Amino acid sequence: MPAQDTEAIILKTFPLGEADRLVSFLSRSSGRMRGVAAGARKLKNRYGSTLELLAHVQMEYIERETRDLVRIQQCDLLDSFHAAQSEYSLATGLALVSEIVEILLPEREPAEAMFRLVLLTAREIERRKEWRIPAGYFVFWAVKLAGWLPPLDRCGKCGAQLGSGDGYHASWSPGQLCRDCRHPGMRAISLPAREVAPLFARKGLEKLSEAEAPGGLVGELRDACLDWIEHHTERKLITRNLLETA
Amino acid sequence: MPDFAAPVERLIDELKHLPGIGQKTAQRLAFYLLRIPAEDALGLAEAIRNAKEKIRACSICHNITDNDPCIYCTGANRNKRCICVVEEAHNIMAIEKTRTYSGMYHVLGGALSPLQGRGPEQLFIKSLIERLKGGAVEEIIVATNPTAEGEATAVYLSKLLKPLGVKVTRIGVGIPVGADLEYADEVTMLKAMEGRREL
User: Fold this and answer.
1) Which of A15, A114, A178, B140 has the CA that lies 20 to 30 A from B10?
2) Which domain holds residue B126?
3) Same domain, B41 and B83
4) Contact across the interface for B186 and A18, Cβ inside 8 Å
């Protein structure tokens, strides 16, 4: 098979054998894939340092029909988020993005929109030196792109308009419920927080300011979206608990 | 129906739990162990049992040791004013090999890694702060790995420790000895430039 050349974002790496790395990456042309980077943990490896979380790279790999894992031949750094990775709170925001992409996307299905969204989010986390708005924007769009965003103006059970009242969500419920239909243990999302959603939908992340989308409201919306991701993927997000302490 | 006799199957299953060992390698190792003399195989089993029974974590620095506190914490010639912070106990050996460092150590038990659910609470950071309370420690050398997780841990520790009035330094990061600059990637080169020193 000839070598494939693609732009990619590194999602996750694991040590493999003596000095190799197993790499999960999002290819711009082929979607989420996994491959082996032979010798990537050796001190003098030429591309070991490019395989950091959410690094944007130009990657060359070889695919064999009988193998699940591709063989990574070459990696050149296009964008590094090393500065953001060095800050624990920002690294937690980046890790949330990586974890969601990992569990959301099926393997080998092109996801150009998600690729652009991840890159935009990582760049904004690094530029703003703040993760709350970019991560909130990412989580909202991830839910929307997956087709899991429920109507935010009415109850998912009785259909009643929520008006200025709170909506209620939980990771064991696919939508949001009104005050009358809610179950014990559900968390509230206020009207101002729900109004951040259309703002995220129509405005680019690089143009959003803290004044338009205050951290507290973005946090409420992010929390609801994370619940819907956990509900549909039937998995608990590992990084979610660490967001509180980041 | 199992492919092998039950004891062999069990041995293969146990070997498969080791990191980097899959079904085929586990089978090869199992048949190797069956081929070698009984005393060699039992010697290996005894060594594993012995290590598991006698080795524990040092109550001061969390290094692995058979005597608590460990030799670095009790050594009379060690410099008590300096603590080198490492991710794992085996990192200590890499530093000891240089024969230039004679201070104390502190093993964190990993690096901050949100993707693995490892935050500050999961590392031995509180015990490091406890060690600084006597005021005898003047310098902390952060020798975490030069990975994103290691860097995040180093920055987190420096923010936490500097207000306590202790000098916090980081090991140098850059081009390895014997390497060619032509093959250095951007991040490594950037770190090497940032860490340059006057000759």
Assistant:
1) A15
2) 78-170
3) no
4) no
